[in-house]
């Protein structure tokens, strides 16, 4: 069991992902934007961070860069549906910014759980 930080601004997506991750045995800490996520990252032990890219207040690329600077060993997964333009280039930018893994929305539950397990083992 790992403690995962899930940063996602869409309440329905966040609730669905939380349910998937909790069924897989993980503890999920939620945040609805990068600023809140980074604050929670400093307040408690987090084993892995999952962040959306396109969010209000503090977007995912900036969140990844800051989290990587503060916690160099933290496994980070970036997720994105590409926003209104469906531009999936954001995921490549997330990798360049320090994400260890990227996944496009909509996410498949088992693929997500398998990828998280792999990141936690690495």
Automatic annotation (TrEMBL):
Residues 3-120 form the Response regulatory domain. It holds the Pfam family Response_reg. CDD domains: REC (cd00156). Transmembrane segments: none annotated. The modification 4-aspartylphosphate is found at residue 52. Coiled coil: none annotated. Gene3D superfamilies: 3.40.50.2300. GO terms for biological process: phosphorelay signal transduction system. InterPro entries: Bact_response_regulator, CheY-like_superfamily, Sig_transdc_resp-reg_receiver. Keywords: Phosphoprotein. PROSITE patterns: RESPONSE_REGULATORY (PS50110). This is Response regulatory domain-containing protein. The lineage of its organism: Bacteria, Pseudomonadati, Pseudomonadota, Alphaproteobacteria, Rhodospirillales.
């Amino acid at each position: 069991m790992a403690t995962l930080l899930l940063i996602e601004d869409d309440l329905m997506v966040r609730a669905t992902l939380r349910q998937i991750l909790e069924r897989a045995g993980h503890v999920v800490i939620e945040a609805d934007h990068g600023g809140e996520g980074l604050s929670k990252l400093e307040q408690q032990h987090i084993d892995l961070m999952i962040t959306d890219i396109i969010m209000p207040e503090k977007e995912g690329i900036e969140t990844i860069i800051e989290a990587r600077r503060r916690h160099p060993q933290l496994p980070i997964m970036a997720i994105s549906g590409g926003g209104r333009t469906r531009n999936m280039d954001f995921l490549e930018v997330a990798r360049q910014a320090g994400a260890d893994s990227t996944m496009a929305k909509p996410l498949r539950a088992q693929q997500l759980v398998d990828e998280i397990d792999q990141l936690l083992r690495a």
